[in-house]
Amino acid sequence: xxxxxxxxxxxxxxxxxxxxxxxxxxxxxxxxxxxxxxxxxxxxxxxxxxxxxxxxxxxxxxxxxxxxxxxxxxxxxxxxxxxxxxxxxxx
Length: 91
Known about the structure:
alpha+beta, TATA-Binding Protein, five-stranded antiparallel beta sheet, 2 helices, 37% helix, globular
């Protein structure tokens, strides 16, 4: 199974990083049709050929993505979109 991980350190308040993480999860849902569920400071998401975890803490936000065979073709654009989002909304 193909996939990737992205992690960023931040200096945001935990509430602000939660807000940014929730917005990222909504964006993944909108763009890629995944469903997600939060449990504490981690969101598990799943969709057709994709699954992963979005985590936050007081210093980092991270995303781990696993892609099935057919979804592997979307690895590069998905990774690019996630990095752009984090660059713009997480500091």
